[in-house]
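Q: Can I see a sequence and its folded structure?
A: Here is a first one.
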Amino acid sequence: MAFNNSTDDDVLSEINVTPLVDVMLVLLVAFIVTAPLLNNAIHVNLPKTVTTSPPDQLKPVTISVDKEGRVYIDKKELSLAQVELELKRRQTQNPEQTYHLNSDDSVQYGKVAKVMALIEKSGITKLSVLTQSG
């Protein structure tokens, strides 16, 4: 006569992972089959030509405002009146020129706003305002 100490009402606490593995394998096969189809490139044979150099990339003009409020264009200090004339001259010489504006963190906003107004008045449209991240 065998005695059984466990009751028949115990809940089975094991997880059957076989269905999960089956689903993952089906998803993997679906991905492997569809991945090559995601490349929509048209394969063409390009003609052979002589090697050319890329067009000259112009160095951007840097406009800086230091902590005392002095304005510089490419490390040359200028007054506000001179800044406007210099920017107009550079813009007429090369309308495709890009400009970088940077200013010290402690400069009053009004000074930077005046410089930005001069930049806009000069007709410059390619302007990047440089900041430090972090």
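Q: Show me another, different protein.
A: A second, unrelated one:
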Amino acid sequence: MKLFSGKKPDLAKLPENILAVAFFLFLILTGYYSLKNYWDVRVSGVTETADGFSVENDFESNFNILLWHEDKYVEYYGLAAKLLGQPELNEVVKLKNGYLSGVEELVPEENLKRNADDLLALKQYLESRGSSLLYVQTPFKISKFDDQLPAGIADFSNQNIDTFMKYLAENGIATIDIRQTMYEEGMDQYDYFFRTDHHWTPEAGFYAYGKIADYVEENLGIPVDEQVKNLENYQIDNYEDWHLGTNGQRTGIYYGGIDDFHLISPAFDTQLINMDTQATGSYHEILIEDAVLKEESRAVYDIAYGNSIGHYFHNPNAANDARVLVVSDSMGKVVAPFLILSYQDVYTTGYDLTMEKIEEFAPDIVIYVTYPANIGGESFHVVQ
């Protein structure tokens, strides 16, 4: 009886084969202990696991809850993908510079034109009541000028943006394209994004804020206190290895790493009022949710700066009496705080702006700060 086929093993594939076998054994072990945990719970009759999860009757729900080392499964899977040099995992692409990103499909031009036309209608309405409109386009993670994409992977985010910006220009809408301003100023766009997230960093938010403040002053004659516009007047606290973004959560730390997180806080006195809750306090007390900065967390961005969107703020220390209405998605969470510090009254909202709200708030200017994946969406432009 032959013990071997006579075919020599491919030594070049040996590490890959060993890794595949190890991962297969891990799957078997995971399945065994997951089923064992499930069986123990069902036989014992308990209704709650030691971790506090409620045990339901549905098998699939229970299995997901009781999955052995569920928190490590994604990590090991990501480690295997990294060792194999896999450029894509769970719909996340690892760019050549190591950054993790999604990719965007091509948006039909009629969707982009429809939204541009709706913004034109908003512009005309605002102008009829003495207000202005400014559209600010945030970059997608993948740079228009240096895509860093692995071979064979396509992304249409920047093509979508270019088409949309063309329609906005044809409609005479004032715009700031942050992709373009960063490029013209010699900035590496990737330096202003988290490696593991689709979001940009607080420093990027401050940069975009500066461009907005300059536009408002030049075109509306509304000045901002110079200390607010200068980053040197802020304290930047670094939380090392603290933030795991949306892309990193899909692939694990071993595959794409983990980010530091910066909190930018004024080093000068501030006083803000949340007019919705009547809470009064400093910038940090009103805008920052610091629980995620005191204990180890992962999805920090959305929580830490989350209080900045969805409220009406009054700033009695502002150097002007301007009223600014900001419409944004999560990319605006690190832009809005600095606008709130700059103008007397700032109302921030998502894509649920209504005519009633415009009439009630009476803004001097409405500013859209938009994530590229949302420019073709149905709810992007709605003004009832």
